[in-house]
Amino acid sequence: MSEVIHTAIYYFCAAIVWICLGIAAVKIIWNIGLPYAMLREKPRGWSIFPLIEIVPVAIAAFTSWMIVYDRILSASHILTYGLGAIVLSYLHLCLVSFIVGILAWIQSRNKK
Fold it and tell me: How far is 58 from 107, CA to CA, in rounded Å?
């Protein structure tokens, strides 16, 4: 009986890991597409909230550590790749915004 409970807990925690990584992946994809969406629309406020992807990655890493996942889904790999992807997505956002700002400045300066 305890083997069945142990297996059920393991698969439940594995599902939590995958769900959390999915949520983080969707937010990271949002971060990559955001500057291009901002270019197409009229200026308005956009919400950038890094906890939406940091918390699921942390929960996935903690759950992976608790059930002793190994290989690519080990806690250290989740933290390394997850936080790395988050940082790179925000760097991409800043870089594209910076380049677009420079191009807009040059364009407005040439109109005068």
Answer: 43
pLDDT in tens, the chain (112 residues): 789 898 898 899 899 999 999 999 998 898 888 888 777 777 666 666 778 888 999 999 999 998 887 788 889 999 999 999 999 999 998 898 888 888 888 888 887 6
Read off the amino acid at residue 52. Answer: I
Domain ranges of the chain: 2-111
Q: Which has the closest alpha carbon to 63: 19, 93, 30, 23?
A: 19
Tokens of 11: 């698969």
Report yes or no on whether pTM surpasses 0.90. no
Question: What DSSP line would sit under 25-90, residue for residue?
Answer: HHHHHHHHHHHHHHHHS-S------THHHHHHHHHHHHHHHHTT--GGGSHHHHHHHHHHHHHHHH
Q: Provide the residue type at 60 as one letter.
A: A
CA distance 76 to 70: 9
